[in-house]
Amino acid sequence: MFFTLRNRLFLIFTCLLTIPFILLSIIIPSWFATIIRDQAQDLTIEMMDQYLLYVDSITTQAEDLGKQVLINETTQEWLRLEKENVADDETLLMKNELRSLLSSMMVNNSNFMSISILLYDGTGIWGNNPDLDEEEWFQDFIEHEQQFAKSHIDQLQPYPGEINSYILPLFDTNTLVPSGIIKVNFPSDLLEKALNKIKIGQEGRAYLIDQKGSNVFQAQVDLPHNILKQGLAEIANGYQQKGLIEADHNSETYLMFFQKLPIGDWILISEVTESDLFSKVNNLQRNLLLTSGVVFMLTIVASFMLSSTITRPLGNLAKAMGYIERGDFTGAKRFMPTIKSHNDEVGYLINVFDRTIEQLKKLIETEYEANLRRKDAEYKALLLQINPHFLNNTLEIIGGLAVQGKNREVMNVSVYLGRMMRYSLNTKSNVVKLGEEVSYIKSYTDILKLRYEDAIKVEIDEELQTKRFPIIKFILQPLVENAVKYSFIEKSSAQIYIKTEKVQNNVYIVVEDKGIGMSEEVIANLAKEEMDDETITVLESKGNSIGLENVIGRLKLYYGQDFSYQIKSEKNVGTRITLCINFRGDICDEGHNHGR
Prior knowledge:
Radius of gyration: 48 Å
Largest sheet: 5 strands, mixed
Mean pLDDT: 79
Helix content: 40-55%
Shape: elongated
Number of strands: 15
Strand content: 15-25%
Structural class: alpha+beta
Low-confidence stretches: 533-545, 585-596
């Protein structure tokens, strides 16, 4: 039905209008994404290079100031006096001269830099710091030789706020013995404000970090820990001074641009997610796809309007023929008045088909009633094969127990037999609940347990949802009887497993044993008989095959195409028989595995 006129028109409109829009919505955003990615990389590297020059200019100025202070005669003279413990008046005078020198340098500096000098014991030009050894920046300098300190607060510097510092050893230029430090401070804002200008995307940010991933400034690095860790590992293992690292986190791809600074171990990174970087491209793609959807809907409307005058009545006629194909003549007859056509040729075709349905319906109803009466007779003949056979077997069990003098067991078997006979002699209906059929088989297996004692094991797994399912009588007992019979042929024990299960619209009934199994020839003959007419085969068996064939024959007669079965058997291993009944009319999947 795919190549109808309406479908052809729809296909043509789709190819001409919808497909180009869909292709454009894929190709154009991908092209834009490549361009944006390249431009973002170039722009970011350019901004990072400019920032590097800016940082280099500030740090170079700090280094120059520190070196000037170190080699200045006033600094060296003050250091000599402090080491020789000269009189306080002379030392104080020299300290004031050094303060004047440092003040002059700070005033002439354009970047608000401040300079402080501290001896290792905490004595300083601008004041004393007895906790010098506990300062983090001082520990980094002493233990790791970090001359550029991260952002911190220094109470001895004249300017308030956070600062970064350049630290160099204070030593006598004659003996080269270090006695303290010279600390050149510059406001963190100088570097931080310039860093905030490096931004790509809507939410991308730049950071100045050390090799451990700690921010040079006080703010936290707002980047997933595993992304930062992976990036630092690649930077440490590589030889490049700058580049791009890509990493994934929570279904998001992060782009991390980096550049190593010649200042200590500082690293400049700028990060952005692909979704943020390509947000405008993604919006463009969504708009194009939305447009494609609108065009697609317009295509449907156009094809519908152009083809409705001819294809609609023909399509409805095809639906009516579908009812006929499924055998639903009443549905087809009910559907025919809804077919309207203003075309004379199509209208004539509809009228002829309507009359044909009426004639076929009458002929089929007549034939159906005749077949129904025949099948009812066949079904009752099949059902009558069960009871005598079962009764004979049960009486043999009672007789065997009586001979052994097991009176209690004989009483129990009689009780079980009474329950089963009440079930068997109830002729009001041949259809019972599956739970009743399972209760019946429990009485039967209780009789078997009394006879065989420990030699037989029966396990029944009954799903609660299947208890109320309507089923025809006596479908389990022949299967269980055969399972027991063929288990004891070559073995001294029998293991029987019975299971009922509901899966979607299918009810599965499984009987499994560990007996001698069935040969492939027997299974093939069952399949062949099913392809022919299994009902005739069973009726002509004259009682010689009243087990599996009987059950399959009765189920086929009653459920028709809604019944299917599966047999899996292996010689000397066992047999599993699965009966499947679909209670909505769909053919069940015979490949479904319901064994243990």
